Structure formats: C-alpha cells, structure tokens
C-alpha cells in the first residue's frame, strides 16, 4: 500500500475467528489441531439439532454453522463434539468488547463476536492498519483468541473485509480500491442478500457484484422495491451508516430441536419456557430489557413459522415473557401437528426502566401489542 492514504472516515469491523470453538480450545488446549464442532449432541449420527460453529480443522471436512448435526457427523465422525456453553462465550465476548472499547471512543457491538469501530481519528489508512495489527496482537496475547479485521471507509466494506482473509487476517480497502475489492465477490456478501435474493439476482444475470452493477437502478427497484435501491448502492460500495455506539446487540435467543418429532404439547410448552428462561438470563446478564419477542416453530417436514410481538415498553419480567411466548405459540400448539423445533428470541433491547411500576406475576401482559406480526419463514433465513 503506497501511502499515505488519507480518508475522512475509517471503520474497523472486528470478527472473532470460529468464536465458540476458539473459546473451547482456549479452555482445553488438548483440542488444538483437532476438528472441534460446537452444537447439539450428534448421537452417533442420529442427532437432530444443528452445528452452531466449528473450528477451521472441522471446516476442511465440509462442516459449517447451521449444518444438521447428523450431516456433520457423516462428514467428520472423528470430530470432537461439544455442547455450547453460552455463559462462557458471553464472558469471553465481554472481555474482548472491553478491549475494543479501550481502543476507540466509538464502538458498536454488532453481535456476540463482532463489532464496528470508528477509527477516523487515525486520519490515514497506514495508521489505521498499524492500529488494527496492534489490536489483533493485544487480543491474541491477552485473551488468547484470534480475530480478523476489515479496515475500510465504511461499515459495509469493513464487514466484507473482515471475512476476506479469515482466520487471523487483516484486510485494508482504501477508498480508491473499494470497487476493485467488491467486484469479484458474490452478490451474497451484500447486506440482506440471502440465498433467495441471490437466486433472483442470478436469474437477472447478476452473480457477482460486478455483474450486479450492470443492472440499472430502476430495474432493481422494480424487482425488489426499496431494497433494490439499497442493493444498487451497496454494489457501488456506498454506505453512510454511522458507527452507532447506542445500537444494541440485535437479538438473543435459544432454540431446541426435539430428539424425535413430538406432539406432546406439554413437552413443547416446557421446552419453550426453558428457551424463554435462558434467553432472559442472557439478556439480564447484559443488563437489558427487550421489547420484541419472537417464537419460532418448526413442524415435521421442516415447515417453519415465526410469530412476533413488540411490546409498548421493554420488559425483563419472567411472567410477561413466559405468558407472551405461550400465547404466541398457542395457535401452533392447537394445529395438532408434530413439532421438530421450538425457539424464542428477544430483540429491540433497552436499558431497564427503573421507574416502571412493578408488574405482579399473575401472567397478565399489561404493556403488550403495539404491533404483532405473523410470518412464514423459509429454511434459509435472510439477514
Ligand atoms: P460467526 O462470526 O458467524 O462465526 P464464527 O465466529 O464461528 O466463525 P468465523 O471465523 O467464520 O467468524 O458467528 C459467531 C458465533 O455465533 C459462532 O462462534 C457461533 C454462533 N453462531 C451460531 O450459534 N449459529 C450460527 O448459525 C452462526 C452463523 C453463528
Ligand atoms: Mg466470527
């Protein structure tokens, strides 16, 4: 990089490498060098859950996040399978976030293992590159965890950058080279472009960002509405979203796949309540309350639905969360179908409102329902 390359805005996206697996490896050095898979119990190939993540050794066998655990077992029967320990990961995450927050005034945590940093004060990409190297080394030395960092003029390109040379990579994309960097990439790297949109874009002849740029904006808008305009801008590397320290982690949730598809509705209810409880504990450990609650169900045959409610005020109340979850699940419970999976997710977090009147645990939901939605979800959830 011949320098100096000055820029008004410089953003980092830091993403931990195979995060859950890396934390497990750190806790148990014997795992090093072996394929490690974090997820549900494979039960000798008969397990029915999914892979949360796996280390890079396991990825060589074709194992990856969200793969059914039974398939992972077929591909990598000698792997070491570990049930997730969320409390451990959330602790590790907190410590990493503290280090990141010491490195900048403007930090936006974007998930358990990723964050954006506004490092515009570096002024040049050369200085930002050095800062990224220092930060990466610090996290390696003090937390014994590896991360990858994208350094770019905006969040979009920084995020694509952090994924460019994983694990342990730093990718610097200066303003002038943004287009060159994006062009050969799949349209799927853009925000909100999941498998379904990718298919529709491919039908228009746009598999890469370069070919996507050939499509006129009006055509994309006709095809995808407002999202089309966003794709058009993204394909040009345009993104003026600020790094926003007040944006909270998007969601926290749990889901369980039943060992055998079940029509035991009491068991489904109990499992849902377990998910609510775990998600609530995660949330309270972050000192947050949530406004949006989502129940997800998957019937036999993989048909997946979700139902969402947004409360007028945020809550941390066990009674409210449980009764809201149960009432959202009720229509599905009454459908008389067999359940494969049930899950519960909290989002739209806010700090607890201490002045709210205490709500008694009688199961009423006094502040529910500014908006409820019902949505059928496909197998591949789009961002
Ligand atoms: P990611 O950053 O997507 O994945 P990763 O950190 O494991 O691997 P990479 O090196 O490619 O970044 O997600 C962070 C953690 O979130 C991951 O360690 C486990 C969890 N997770 C799930 O539980 N389910 C999922 O489908 C995904 C994608 C992640
Ligand atoms: Mg990661």
Low-confidence stretches: 354-383
- The first-to-last residue Cα distance is 33 Å
Continuous helix count: 13
Instruction: Return the average pLDDT rounded to an integer.
Output: 89
Let me know the number of strands: 13
Beta-sheet strand percentage? 15-25%
Class from helix and strand fractions: alpha+beta
Regarding CATH, which class of the largest domain? Alpha Beta
Radius of gyration: 22 Å
- SSE order in H/E notation? EHEEHHEHEEHEHEHHHHHEHEEHEE
Overall structural domain count: 4
CATH topology of the largest domain: Dna Ligase, domain 1
Q: Which helices and strands appear, and what pairs or packs with what?
A:
Layout: E1 11-16, H1 19-27, E2 36-39, E3 51-54, H2 56-59, H3 69-75, E4 80-82, H4 86-103, E5 107-111, E6 114-118, H5 125-143, E7 147-152, H6 155-162, E8 170-172, H7 178-182, H8 195-203, H9 209-212, H10 217-224, H11 226-235, E9 251-262, H12 265-285, E10 289-299, E11 304-315, H13 318-333, E12 339-350, E13 371-377
Parallel strand pairs: 2-4, 7-8
Antiparallel strand pairs: 1-6, 1-7, 2-3, 5-6, 9-12, 10-11, 10-12, 11-13
Bound molecules: thymidine-5'-triphosphate and magnesium ion.
């Amino acid at each position: 990089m011949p320098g100096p390359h000055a820029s008004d805005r410089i953003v980092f996206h830091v993403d931990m490498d195979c995060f859950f697996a890396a934390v497990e490896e750190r806790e148990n050095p014997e795992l090093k060098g072996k394929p490690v898979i974090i997820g549900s119990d494979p039960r000798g190939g008969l397990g029915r859950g999914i892979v949360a993540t796996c280390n890079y050794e396991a990825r060589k066998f074709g194992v990856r996040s969200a793969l059914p655990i039974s398939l992972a077992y077929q591909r990598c029967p000698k792997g070491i399978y570990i049930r997730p320990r969320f409390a451990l990961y959330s602790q590790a995450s907190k410590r990493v976030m503290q280090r990141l927050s010491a490195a900048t005034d403007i930090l936006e945590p974007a998930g358990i293992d990723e964050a954006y940093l506004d490092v515009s004060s570096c002024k040049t990409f050369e200085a930002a590159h050095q800062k990224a190297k220092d930060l990466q080394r610090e996290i390696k030395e003090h937390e014994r965890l590896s991360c990858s960092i994208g350094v770019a003029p905006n969040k979009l390109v920084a995020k694509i950058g952090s994924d460019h040379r994983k694990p342990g990579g730093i990718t610097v994309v200066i303003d002038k080279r943004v287009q060159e960097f994006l062009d050969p990439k799949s349209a799927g790297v853009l925000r909100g472009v999941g498998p379904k949109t990718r298919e529709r874009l491919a039908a228009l002849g746009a598999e890469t960002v370069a070919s996507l740029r050939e499509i006129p904006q009006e055509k994309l808008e006709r095809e995808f509405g407002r999202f089309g305009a966003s794709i058009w801008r993204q394909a040009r590397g345009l993104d003026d979203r600020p790094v926003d320290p007040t944006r909270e982690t998007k969601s926290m949730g749990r889901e369980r796949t039943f060992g055998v598809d079940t029509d035991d509705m009491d068991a489904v209810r109990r499992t849902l309540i377990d998910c609510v409880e775990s998600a609530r504990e995660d949330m309270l450990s972050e000192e947050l309350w949530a406004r949006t609650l989502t129940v997800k169900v998957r019937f036999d045959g993989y048909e997946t639905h979700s139902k969402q409610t947004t409360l007028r005020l945020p809550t941390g109340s066990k009674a409210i969360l449980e009764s809201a979850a149960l009432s959202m699940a009720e229509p599905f419970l009454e459908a008389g179908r067999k359940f494969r999976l049930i899950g519960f997710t909290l989002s739209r977090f806010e700090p607890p409102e201490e002045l709210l009147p205490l709500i008694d645990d009688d199961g009423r939901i006094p502040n529910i329902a500014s908006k409820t939605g019902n949505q059928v979800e496909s197998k591949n959830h789009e961002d």
